[in-house]
Amino acid sequence: MDAEIVKNGKVADILSRKQFLLVQIMKEPISSKGHRLSCEISLPGRYIVLTPFQDNIAVSKKISSSEERKRLTGIAEGVKPKNFGMIVRTAAEGKTTAELHQDVLNQVNRWEQMHRQLHKANQPKKLLSELDKTSSILRDLLNDTFTRIVVDNRELHADILGYIQQIAPEKADIVKLFNGTKPIFEQFGVTRQIKAAFGKTATLPSGAYIVIEHTEAMHVIDVNSGTKTNSTDQENNALTVNLEAAEEIARQLRLRDLGGIIMVDFIDMRKLEHKKQLYQTLKEAMRRDTAKHTILPLSKFGIMQITRQRVRPEVSITTAEACPSCKGTGTVNPTVLVTDDILRDVEFILKNQAPQKLLIEVHPFVHAFLTKGLWKSQQFKWFWQYKKWIHVRPSIERHLSEYRFFDEQEEEIRLA
Fold first, then answer.
1. Each residue of 279-295: pLDDT tens digit?
2. Taking the alpha carbons of 360, 361, 365, 367 in that order, is the dihedral positive or negative?
3. Beta strands 149-151; 175-177: pairing state
C-alpha cells in the first residue's frame, strides 16, 4: 500500500479484509525480495505513459532542451484525455502531435478493454499483460539508428513486421527473414560476443581490462591498465584507460542489467580536470541507458558510485567451462605420481594385452622427463625391465597429468 494513502491512519482504516484491489506489478521478485505492487496504474506506450485517475503532466528528465520540454508539454496538454495523467518518454523527443496523439489513443483503448473485463472478472484475475518480450524491446529501443532486424522464425517475423508497421511504418523494410544454413547466433557472431561479454573479466581494445565482482550488497568493478603502460606519462595513460573503461562499464551495465549500488575503482588520477572529464564521459555513456540511474563524481579515493534501477534479476550467463584436468572438482593428482601411474598401467597392459607395439602419448613436459638422458632415462629403464621398447610421444593436447596408450594400429588402448 502506498504511503500517501495511509499517511496518518492505519491500513485497516482504509481497507477491509478480503477486499479486492486493482494492482500493478512494478518489479519482479529478486532474490529473497517478493514482487512490488502498486495501486497507481500506468500504461506505457512508445512515446507516453498514461496514468489513470491522475491529472498531472511530466516530461522525461533525459530531455535536456528547455524548448523541447516546453513544446512536448504543450502537446501533452492538448492530447491528454480527461481524468488521465501523462508522462512523456524520452523517445518522444522531436515527434509530432499526431504521433503522440495516436499513442495516447492506443493506451486509452487498452485501458477501456481492461475496464470492461474488470466488472466480469472472478478474482484473482489478470486483466492486462505487458507486451511480449520482442514487442516491448522494440517499443523501448527502436530508433533511427536501427538499420536491420533479422529473424529466423517465420511466425515471429510476421509478428514483428506487423508490430513495426503499427508503430513505425517507415521502418518496416528493415525486418528481414534469416535463411542462412548456420544458426543465426553463430552466423552473426552473437554466441562469441556473449561468451566474451559475460565473463568475470571484460577486455578493452587497448589491452586494459575491467573485473566485475558481485556481492550481496553491491557490484564492484575494478579498472586495470593491463599491458597498456607508459611510464613517461602516467597521468595521461591513466586518463586514456579510464575513459575507455567508462564506455565499457556503461555497456556492461546495460548488457547484464546490473542494478542497485555499483562501485567503480578507476585508476588514480591527480588532475582535477581529468577527474571531471571522466565523470562527464561516464554520464554521457549512460545517457543511452533507459533504467533510472544516478552517478556521483569521483571520491578522493578514486571511487565512483553509481545507483541503477533494479527492475528484474540481473542477466547472468555462465561462460566458464569445466576444467579438463580436474573435471570441475578443483583438485588433481600430484604430478610427482604421474610416472608411478604410467608404470602401473604399462605393467598391466604388457601382462594382459601384450601389444606388438606400445606408444604412450603425454604432455611435452612429461615427455621430456621420461626421455631425458637416454641411458639414464625412464624410457630406457622400462626397456631394461620389460625387454620391450616403449615409445613416448609428446602432445600439447594432453594436460600435465593426462596420458593415453596406443597399439601398433594407432588405436587407443582403454584400461576401463
1. 999 999 998 887 888 99
2. positive
3. parallel
Relative to beta strand 303-308, strand 260-265 is antiparallel
Strands (E) in 129-206, as ranges, are 149-151, 175-177, 201-203
DSSP sequence for 224-265: E-TT---TT-HHHHHHHHHHHHHHHHHHHHHHHT--EEEEEE
Spatial CB neighbours of 317, under 8 Å, sequence gap ≥ 6 = 194, 198
Question: How far apart (Å, rounded) are the C-alpha atoms in residues 214 and 212?
Answer: 7
Cβ(74)–Cβ(80) below 8 Å:
no
Q: Which of 306, 307, 242 is nearest to 274 (CA)?
A: 242
Question: Furthest-apart CA pair in the chain: how many Å?
Answer: 101
Task: Give the C-alpha separation, 154 to 152, whole Å.
Answer: 7
Residues in the chain: 416
Indicate the SS3 state at residue 194. Answer: helix
Tell me the DSSP string of 289-340: --S-EEEPPP-TTSEEEEEE---SPPP--------TTTTTSS----GGGHHH
- Output the pLDDT for position 71: 92
Pull the grid cell for residue 317.
Answer: 550467463
Contacts of 328 (CB under 8 A, 6+ apart): 322
pLDDT in tens, 90-148: 888 888 899 899 889 988 988 888 888 777 777 777 777 776 678 777 877 777 788 88
Tell me the per-residue pLDDT of 189-207, one tens digit each, with 9 for 90 and over.
Answer: 887 777 666 678 888 887 7
CB 187, CB 245: distance < 8 Å: no
Angle 43-250-30 (CA atoms, 0-180°, nearest 5)?
Answer: 55
pTM above 0.85, yes or no: no
